[in-house]
């Protein structure tokens, strides 16, 4: 074979259909008594390339001429061109380098290296249901291709055929590994629904972010799940990766039930920044439309979570896709208040009258109120048309400042929409006020009737305001009329007699609340103002209530006990004279 002038090797074994190129090259070199390095140099391959199935086209052609028989052929199942077959990203994650693993029963049946043993995540022989051996059973040293082909450990000289491997009794692991082996060479077959071998690994790499540090759903171990790396030795662990993939396999069985179990456990053990980062890393898979089926289930899960009050609307999935919030069924009470400006008391009042449905829940020791979205939408759309203070004034016929006084008295309910500084009002409530207080239409008005604004000016000194007019209208003491088609309170007319009766009522109420006015006291005691003032000064009697008018004038009121005291003083002075 000097100077590349060669013929066929003397001993040319058949290559097995599932035998790795590296294993076959070792087997050929041993059978023909050549050093492995000699053949690898002849093929212009480094030792690293030769023992890791990294054969280029030139090497394959030389190797074929040197060894292969007429009926032999080389394919991906022999480990050829796996980088191109799987793509570099997947290839770098699943192919084991510089060491091998094996099934003890397989090598007893026929001793050669199977290509499938090059895959890190495949760690079970599905023919014998045995865990693959990836280190010397006696000294735990990693197994090189040379050691394997020499059948002995270079450290302790253990014969690899003399030891058995552990039987697998885990059904999920067996099914998972069987599906991987079934689909590794066939890109049209699915490991799980909608996922071939490559898609499954992409999904798995994202799903690890939900599973990491969680429990083992396959029940293979009682330890928390960790992936890829054996921390004590810093290398990839085939067993851990196989277990991780078995958990991913379980996660997407009975979909989406198991998927939701994993999400629930994830939320329970992850908080704050760690939860956010891991969910963010998982959600990267949604950039690929091939995984829309996962995204739809994921979105549905968190819609249910927000409906139950477990997450808020600022949760990551809703930040990324705010349109999802339109599909929720319940909204937190505080969010309803923030968006609509409706106070808590008003919300519960609406609930009492079946305008809204509010559900009370206890979460983590705290009380939560959730408003059913359909009832809120209907309420806002059909019953809660809002108008401004100025628009209310145009309807009832008054300036906006008067509208505010009416609202302050409780006849209208101001609503702050979101963070707006301007109050809004329910048009239904305004219409109800108008319906209750608008005058009855008549063509013939009594000349003695007084128009609304004239009532205010005529009886201003008695503090007869619009609020009193509304109150007496509701109580039935005033029955307004109007003679025009205009429907504002400013067009109302009121009976003079009813007005005087209302003034008497006001007077009696104020006497009960504040006492008698100074002038009324002079009339009752039949004395002049000067004499009354002299008695008050000399006897140091103070008014029970002093009303300061806008112009600075003062009005003095005296309760019955004080008037009686003034009367005694008056009688005493008259007796002395």
Give the tags:
single chain, 577 residues, mainly alpha, three-stranded antiparallel β-sheet, 17 strands, disordered N terminus, TniQ
Descriptive account of the structure:
The chain starts with 20 loop residues before the first helix and ends with a helix. With 577 residues, it is mainly α. Helix 19 (389-396) crosses helix 20 (400-408). It is rod-shaped. The protein folds into six domains: 1-168, no CATH class; 169-328, no CATH class; 332-384, no CATH class; 385-435; 438-511; 514-576, Multidrug-efflux Transporter Regulator, Chain: A, Domain 2, CATH 1.10.1660. Helix content is 47%, strand content 9%. The strands form seven sheets. It has a three-stranded antiparallel sheet with strand order 5-7-6. It has a three-stranded antiparallel sheet with strand order 8-10-9. A hairpin with a 5-residue loop joins strand 16 (545-548) and strand 17.
Total helices: the number is 27
**Overall average pLDDT:** 87
Beta content: 5-15%
Distance between the termini: 158 Å
Domain TniQ: 11-132
InterPro entries: TniQ (IPR009492)
Protein name: TniQ domain-containing protein
Organism: Paenibacillus anseongense
Quick rundown:
InterPro entries: TniQ (IPR009492). With 577 residues, the chain is mainly alpha-helical. The chain folds into six domains: 1-168, no CATH class; 169-328, no CATH class; 332-384, no CATH class; 385-435; 438-511; 514-576, Multidrug-efflux Transporter Regulator, Chain: A, Domain 2 (Orthogonal Bundle).
């Amino acid at each position: 074979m000097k100077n590349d002038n060669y013929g066929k090797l003397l001993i040319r074994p058949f290559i097995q259909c599932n035998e790795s190129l590296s294993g076959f090259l070792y087997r050929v070199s041993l059978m023909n008594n050549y050093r492995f390095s000699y053949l690898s140099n002849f093929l212009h391959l480094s030792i690293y390339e030769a023992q890791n199935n990294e054969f280029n086209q030139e090497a394959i052609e030389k190797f074929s001429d040197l060894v292969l028989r007429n009926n032999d052929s080389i394919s991906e199942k022999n480990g050829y061109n796996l980088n191109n077959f799987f793509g570099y990203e997947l290839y770098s994650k699943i192919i084991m380098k510089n060491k091998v693993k094996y099934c003890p029963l397989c090598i007893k049946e026929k001793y050669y290296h199977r290509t499938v043993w090059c895959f890190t995540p495949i760690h079970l022989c599905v023919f014998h249901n045995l865990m693959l051996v990836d280190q010397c059973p006696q000294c735990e040293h990693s197994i090189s291709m040379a050691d394997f082909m020499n059948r002995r450990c270079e450290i302790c000289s253990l014969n690899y055929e003399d030891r058995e491997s552990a039987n697998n009794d885990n059904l999920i692991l067996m099914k998972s590994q069987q599906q991987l082996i079934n689909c590794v060479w066939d890109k049209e077959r699915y490991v799980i629904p909608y996922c071939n071998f490559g898609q499954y690994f992409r999904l798995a790499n994202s799903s690890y972010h939900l599973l990491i540090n969680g429990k083992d759903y396959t029940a293979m171990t009682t330890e928390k799940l960790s992936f890829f790396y054996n921390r004590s030795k810093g290398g990839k662990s085939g067993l851990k990766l196989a277990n991780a993939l078995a958990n991913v396999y379980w996660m997407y069985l009975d979909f989406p039930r198991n998927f939701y179990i994993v999400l629930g456990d994830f939320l329970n053990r992850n908080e704050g920044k760690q939860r956010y980062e891991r969910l963010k890393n998982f959600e990267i898979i949604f950039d690929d439309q091939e995984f829309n089926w996962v995204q739809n289930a994921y979105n549905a899960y968190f819609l249910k979570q927000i409906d139950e009050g477990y997450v808020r609307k600022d949760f990551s999935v809703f930040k990324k896709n705010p349109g999802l919030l339109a599909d929720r069924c319940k909204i937190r009470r505080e969010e309803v208040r923030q968006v609509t400006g409706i106070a808590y008391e008003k919300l519960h009042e609406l609930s009492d009258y079946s305008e809204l449905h509010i559900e009370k829940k206890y979460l983590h020791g705290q009380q939560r109120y959730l408003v059913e979205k359909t009832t809120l939408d209907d309420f806002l759309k059909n019953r809660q048309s809002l108008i401004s203070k100025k628009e209310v004034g145009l309807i009832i016929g008054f300036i906006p400042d008067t509208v505010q006084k009416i609202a302050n008295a409780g006849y209208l309910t101001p609503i702050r929409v979101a963070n707006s500084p301007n109050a809004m009002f329910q048009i239904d409530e305004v219409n109800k006020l108008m319906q209750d207080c608008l005058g009855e239409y008549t063509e013939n008005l009594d000349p003695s009737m007084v128009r609304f604004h004239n009532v205010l000016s005529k009886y201003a000194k008695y503090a007869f305001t619009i609020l009193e007019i509304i109150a007496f209208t509701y109580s039935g003491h005033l029955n307004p009329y109007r003679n025009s088609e205009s429907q504002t309170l400013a067009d109302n007319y009121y009976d003079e007699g009813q007005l005087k009766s209302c003034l008497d009522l006001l007077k009696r109420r104020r006497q009960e609340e504040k006492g008698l006015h100074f002038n009324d006291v002079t009339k009752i005691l039949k004395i002049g103002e000067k004499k009354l003032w002299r008695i008050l000064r000399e006897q140091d009697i103070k008014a029970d209530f002093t009303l300061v008018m806008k112009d600075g004038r003062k009005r003095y009121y005296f309760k019955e006990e004080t008037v009686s005291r003034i009367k005694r003083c008056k009688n005493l002075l008259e007796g002395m004279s």
